[in-house]
């Protein structure tokens, strides 16, 4: 059958869909261009039959057309991060075993090597989007996989979370209802387009609703303020670090700019924060500057969004609200039974928004669910006066920095491959700017020289930039508990805590 997203785009026809560095485009143009690109991807076949297509494309029109083309051809879209070095991209390509790789010309170098080693064709976006014939496109199974998003877990390298078309439809329907999406909405998008936040909450929600999505290729605070200042943007969504940077930029601006920026932002109908805990001082400063009380919500790659403060009604600072429409949420204690209000429990989620499983990892998928089908998030929360407050995570080895999830163990594994590193421990240290700052305590081989800057450069070649420890401390030994296990809380104390001003 035709995907509901595509059906709905037909209804939106002449409306503007995308405003991007490449220009302004209607829904009709999106349908036409993605049909042409789908035909190219099919290369004479009737259906991609769930073949993976990895794409490394600069956020903008080309990105959207590529993603829709993969879906319309019956493939699984695997968006890759434009900030990642070749080693991280190679992991995604090796793990998904795609049929083809699509790349923007200026990003081609990063994936050309792995594609060549695997004998994969690389299509560049100008060729993919060029004029050409359109064939009859296949029926796409709504229950079939649509998207693989890579996410860090406690063990090993990042895993691919498989979301079906039905998952995506359930997620966008839920958010559309909860946040009152309309076809005259206009949203600004600068979040990375390899995560659920940017892809689902912003881009796909906009296109599902016949709204306009304005894409900035990267985040620059002044660019965002200048767009908001025009008073045309109705919706804005970002992570707490972004709000913090926007506040800093506003505070550094002239009073004339401040007035125009604040007035424009006030014209927005809704501003949302998520992907990490929103510090109450950030919420309060943003409210003073723009008049908006940020709507904080809670989600995860594997489940989309689960909890949200209300569109209308009280948004309590420090709380993430109540379950979204169609999402079942419960808090479960250590004994595996739901806890009453007021007691902490792990957030578990069930329903049509929850992903199908990790790509080709049946054991990890099985371990992520309870026997009766609830997804274990690993986040701990408490219900107080009817709303959820997030207390933390069950694992000290999962960090969040600037909205990006990181496995401390993955970073440690990479650091240990450096010839001068005997052992190390990676921790997240509370940080006013990043939420948590990635820090590494390292034991050096006394026979080898090791400069922290050089170790960071070593890590930068192998890991996404946000995984590279910001602070590296050389130590003689790592603090251990009575069992001889490294004590992460004690490691954290080795790093000076940065005070929130
Ligand atoms: C960049 N850097 C980071 C970082 N992003 N360091 C720690 N954490 C991050 N998130 C590093 C860069 O490598 C660089 O290091 C230095 O910080 C400055 O880089 P920058 O170029 O100025 O950063 P910028 O591009 O502005 O990125 C910051 C950011 C970005 C906050 C805008 O990280 C971002 O867009 N984050 C959002 C991620 C997101 O969408 N998460 C949603 C996941 S889904 P150096 O050493 O070179 O100076 C999810 C589910 C849900 O969580 O609920 O939504
Ligand atoms: P990811 O795996 O990148 O999708 O990140 C999901 C994680 O982000 C969740 O498991 C939470 O730990 C965290 N998170 C998302 N939203 C919030 C929020 N509003 N408050 C606190 N943590 C959040």
Key structural traits:
single chain; 501 residues; GMP Synthetase, Chain A, domain 3; 9-stranded mixed sheet; 4-stranded parallel sheet; 16 helices; binds malonyl-coenzyme A; binds adenosine monophosphate
Give the helix/strand layout.
Layout: H1 4-12, E1 16-20, E2 23-26, H2 27-42, E3 52-56, H3 61-72, E4 76-79, H4 86-96, E5 100-103, H5 108-117, E6 122-124, H6 125-128, E7 145-151, E8 159-164, H7 165-179, E9 186-189, H8 196-208, E10 212-215, H9 221-229, E11 235-238, H10 240-251, H11 255-266, E12 270-273, H12 280-290, E13 295-300, E14 304-308, E15 322-323, E16 328-332, E17 345-350, E18 357-358, H13 362-368, E19 375-384, E20 387-393, E21 398-401, E22 404-407, H14 408-416, E23 421-431, E24 435-444, H15 452-462, E25 471-475, H16 488-494
The structure holds malonyl-coenzyme A and adenosine monophosphate.
Malonyl-coenzyme A binds at residues 191-192, 195-198, 219, 239, 241-242, 274-275, 299-301, 401-404, 434, 465-466.
Note down, in words, how this protein is organized.
The protein is globular, with a radius of gyration of 23 Å. The strands form six sheets. It has a nine-stranded mixed β-sheet, sandwiched between helices. A four-stranded parallel β-sheet has the order 4-3-5-6, with helices on both faces. It has a domain at about 400-500: ANL, C-terminal domain (GMP Synthetase, Chain A, domain 3), CATH 3.30.300.30. The longest helix is centred in the N-terminal third of the chain and has 16 residues, at about 25-40. With about 500 residues, it is of the alpha/beta class. The chain is built from 16 helices and 25 strands. It binds malonyl-coenzyme A and adenosine monophosphate. Malonyl-coenzyme A binds near residues 197, 219, 239, 403 and 465.
